[in-house]
Amino acid sequence: MIELPSDLEECLKFIEVRKIYNLRNSSFSLERIADISHIFLCHYRKSNDIRFLNASLKINDRLREEKIDPSIMISLENEEKEALHELAKKIGVEL
């Protein structure tokens, strides 16, 4: 099993380089990928580092296509919506 780097910055690079969000990449279980998305969303909300939001959105798109457990997806989608609304408010855009 592939291990993720413990540092979030390194983890982001790992995810982007290996394109974990790509449907053809099955190095991790869907639940593990969902956990990564959640961590990235939380980090984005604390740091305002848009790269983590972007990676999370890519991951969530994959999870939608893979048809992950609906309760997990609903939770991620709620977090995603909150993050996008916060971003829209910061930049003065209405959703």
Put the structure in a nutshell.
The chain is mainly α and 95 residues long. It is built from four helices and no strands.
Overview of this protein structure:
The structure is a single chain. The chain has helices at 8-18, 30-47, 50-66, 70-91. The chain has 95 residues and is mostly helical. It has a domain at 29-91. The longest helix has 22 residues, at 70-91.
Helical stretch tally: 4
Q: Which regions are unreliable across 5 or more consecutive residues at pLDDT < 50?
A: none
Structural class: mainly alpha
Supply Rg. Answer: 13 Å
- Proportion of helical residues: over 70%
Apparent shape? globular
> Roughly how many Å apart are the termini?
40 Å
Tell me the total number of β-strands. Answer: 0
Query: Topology as H/E string?
Result: HHHH
Arithmetic mean of pLDDT: 87
Main sheet makeup: none
Strand content bin? under 5%
How would the blueprint of this fold be written?
Elements: H1 8-18, H2 30-47, H3 50-66, H4 70-91
Helix pairs in contact: 2-3, 2-4, 3-4
What distinguishing features does this structure have?
95 residues; mainly alpha; globular; single chain
